[in-house]
Every structure is written in structure tokens, then in C-alpha cells.
TrEMBL record:
Claim: Transferase is one of the keywords in the record: yes
MF terms in GO: transaminase activity
InterPro entries, sorted: Aminotransferase_I/II_large, Kynurenine-oxoglutarate_AT, NHTrfase_class1_PyrdxlP-BS, PyrdxlP-dep_Trfase, PyrdxlP-dep_Trfase_major, PyrdxlP-dep_Trfase_small
PANTHER family per the UniProt record, alphabetical: FI04487P
One Pfam family from the record: Aminotran_1_2
Tagged with keyword Transferase: yes
Family of this protein: Belongs to the class-I pyridoxal-phosphate-dependent aminotransferase family.
Descriptive protein name: Aminotransferase
Cofactor: pyridoxal 5'-phosphate
PROSITE patterns: AA_TRANSFER_CLASS_1
Superkingdom, taxonomy of origin: Bacteria
Length: 387
């Protein structure tokens, strides 16, 4: 038999369903409520800062760990917002998006065969991240209206083989914001079992109602065992800039930085400069961002409920998981997603892509994003209501 020339690790995960839905949306001219990226302009102040940085000839490699000004801006913000006292020279690393940050974290801390706990529904990247780093994922399911976890089920997931737990809050796709009490339960188990916590906090500034973002690294005793991931993509509507970052104590940052250096060398230098300018100026921008997304959430929630979906109102992030059981459609989530794209002209993501393969969970759900212009949302609403 001829050699396949392809490594086995590539066979244990498939193409991103989210990005596949984007391609299908384009093919069929559907409104893309599948992939979570804004279709409206980024704020003028960040765009101008990027143009200025290019014209000022900040066009060569930045320092691998990230430009000093950006790392300083990130550290200052972490102090102002969360009371974290970071050394930007040792504890902050800029990456090509939160996507690279998560891959770096897994490659830097996981040994082949180690267990990593993940809450499901989960953001789909964690599965390939685990496959490429040799981790074995252990799932804990978020259930019911509020997507809560059973503390006993969580405890049973921990063992001496557990290397880390991934916590994504505010959560994609559920819209859940983990409470301080829930985070404390997780933290207690991390300490008892001497494991790390890797957090994905990319939606930290997209929160609704009274919900508050609590970084795991701020809980007593947790900074030393937490790798915090965030980035600029969602907050500043610049998903194509690929700017993320890692915050971790020096012993972990040293390992993260080595992996990052040889994966990508670094994120785009002029965009890092623009990111620094944006973070330095953004304290009054964050409340505007929340208001903007609260309005978008209201438009889509209302349309989905009127169209017959059962939806949990998101507490944060910009997704709605919608149950289509009451709509009288026979097929599963994938068939329903394709039907919406082809026949209705609105693209969602099938719910099952956020659950472990083969579990059957998510087969009555689809995910919509409302990170779109009011015009896009209203047209999508019109199409869904005419179904
Ligand atoms: N985080 C976004 C989503 O869940 C975009 C994912 C991606 O394509 N990188 O839709």
C-alpha cells in the first residue's frame, strides 16, 4: 500500500465546522450568523493607530514576547480592572490570537496522555488543541437553563492524571458567565489535585445585565497555577489582526514563550502598537461595547423566540444557543443548519459541534452569533420569521 504521508494526529479532528458554515453562507448568499466575527467597522481610534504605526515604520519583528508598550498596556489594564500585579517583562506574552495562545498553553504544559478537563458545550478549537498536544480530554457537561455544572460530576472528573482544566468565561457557545462561587469550586479542586487552570477570557468585556467577569487568576492561591488567555479580536472588533495574549507566572511563562517563539516568532508589529494605543485609551470604550452588544442581543433573542426557538438568554459573549425542537423539523442539527442556510438564507452552527463527538448532545440545538450589524440582524430576523 502506498504511504499516506499524513500524520495520524491530523485524523483525530476534522475541519472547523464554524468556518465550514461561513463558506456555505457565502456559497448560498445567506446572512452569516455562524462565525463569531463582526461585519461592522472596527473603532476608528484603533484603525488610525495601525495606520500611524505602519507609517512610523514599525514594520519589523517585534520582540518575540510582544512589544514592550503592548505588554505594559496589558499589565496596567490587568491592574486597573482586576487588581493583578504583573511584571510585563516576565508574565505577559503576546500571541497570534487567543487561538495560538491556547495551543501554546497546551503544548507548554501537557505531557502525552495527560488528562485535561473541559466543560461542554465547548469552543471547538479545544479538541484539535488536545489532539496536537497529546492531551486526553475529560468532559464535564453544563446542563439546564443556566448551563450549570454538578460539583460532584466535576470532582469525579479530577484525578492524579489531570494536568489542567480549561475554563472559558464568558462562554462560547452557551453565553454563560461563571460566577465567583463556581470559579471557587473549580479553584478548590485545582488546588486539591495540584492542577493548572487554563482560562479563555476572550469575551471578558462582553457582559450583560448585572454579570461580572471574574478572572480565575484573581482567586486566592490561583495566580500561581493559572494561564490566562485573552486578546483584542472580540473587544476591538479586529478578529483578522490576530492579536491575543497569555498571562502566567514566570515559571509557566518561560515555557509558554519558548513554544510561542518557535511557533510564530510573534504577532504583527504595527498591529501590536495599535493595540497598545487602543488599550491605553479604552476604559470609556468598554461600556459602549456592552451597550452595543446588549442591543444586538435583544434583536436576535426576540426574533428567535418569535420564530419558535427556545433560547437561554446569554449573560456574556455574543452567541445564542437555540433549541429548535418546537419548530417541527425532522432532521438533526446539521440538517437543520443546512436547511436554514439553503432555504431561509441564515447561517448558524450545528449544536453538536460544541459537544464531544458521538454523544448525541446538541442535536436539537444550533448556535447563532449576534456580532453583526443591526442591518444584518434585522434581515436575518425577517428571513427567520418568514420560514
Ligand atoms: N470564536 C469565533 C466563533 O466561535 C470564531 C472562530 C474562528 O473561526 N476562529 O465563531
Amino acid at each position: 500500500m502506498p504511504r499516506a504521508h499524513v500524520a495520524r494526529r491530523t485524523s483525530v479532528f476534522s475541519e472547523s465546522v464554524i468556518r465550514e458554515m461561513t463558506r456555505l453562507a457565502m456559497l448560498h448568499g445567506a446572512m452569516n450568523l455562524a462565525q463569531g466575527y463582526p461585519d461592522f467597522p472596527a473603532p476608528a481610534f484603533i484603525k488610525q493607530a495601525a495606520v500611524d504605526a505602519i507609517n512610523a515604520d514599525i514594520n519589523q519583528y517585534a520582540i518575540t514576547w510582544g512589544s514592550p508598550r503592548l505588554r505594559r498596556a496589558i499589565a496596567d489594564k490587568a491592574r486597573r480592572f482586576y487588581g493583578l500585579d504583573l511584571d510585563p517583562d516576565r508574565e505577559v506574552t503576546v500571541t497570534c490570537g487567543a487561538t495560538e495562545a491556547m495551543m501554546c498553553a497546551m503544548l507548554a504544559v501537557v505531557e502525552e496522555g495527560d488528562e485535561v478537563i473541559v466543560f461542554e458545550p465547548f469552543y471547538e478549537n479545544y479538541v484539535p488543541d488536545a489532539a496536537m498536544s497529546g492531551a486526553k480530554l475529560v468532559f464535564v457537561t453544563l446542563r439546564g437553563e443556566g448551563f450549570s455544572f454538578d460539583p460532584d460530576e466535576l470532582r469525579r472528573a479530577f484525578s492524579p492524571r489531570t494536568r489542567a482544566i480549561i475554563v472559558n468565561t464568558p462562554n462560547n457557545p452557551s453565553g454563560k458567565v461563571f460566577t465567583r462561587t463556581e470559579l471557587q469550586q473549580i479553584a478548590d479542586l485545582c488546588q486539591e489535585f495540584d492542577t493548572l487552570c487554563i482560562t479563555d477570557e476572550i469575551y471578558e468585556h462582553i457582559l450583560y445585565d448585572h454579570h461580572e467577569h471574574v478572572p480565575m487568576a484573581t482567586l486566592p492561591g490561583m495566580y500561581e497555577r493559572t494561564i490566562t488567555i485573552s486578546g483584542l479580536s472580540k473587544t476591538f472588533s479586529v478578529t483578522g489582526w490576530r492579536l491575543g495574549y497569555l498571562i502566567a507566572p514566570p515559571r509557566l511563562s518561560d515555557a509558554l514563550r519558548k513554544v510561542h517563539d518557535f511557533l510564530t516568532v510573534g504577532a504583527p508589529a504595527p498591529l501590536q502598537e495599535a493595540a497598545a494605543v487602543a488599550i491605553e485609551q479604552a476604559d470609556s470604550y468598554y461600556p459602549e461595547l456592552r451597550t452595543m452588544y446588549a442591543d444586538k442581543r435583544a434583536i436576535l433573542l426576540d426574533a428567535l423566540r418569535r420564530a419558535g426557538f427556545a433560547c437561554h438568554q446569554p449573560e456574556g459573549a455574543y452567541y445564542i444557543m437555540a433549541d429548535f425542537s418546537a419548530l417541527g423539523f425532522d432532521g438533526d442539527d446539521t440538517a437543520f443548519a443546512h436547511h436554514l442556510i439553503r432555504d431561509i438564507g441564515v447561517a448558524p452552527v450545528p449544536g453538536s459541534s460544541f459537544y464531544r463527538p458521538g454523544s448525541g448532545a446538541g442535536s436539537r440545538m444550533i448556535r447563532f452569533t449576534f456580532s453583526k450589524s443591526e442591518e444584518t440582524l434585522r434581515e436575518a430576523a425577517r428571513r427567520l420569521l418568514s420560514r
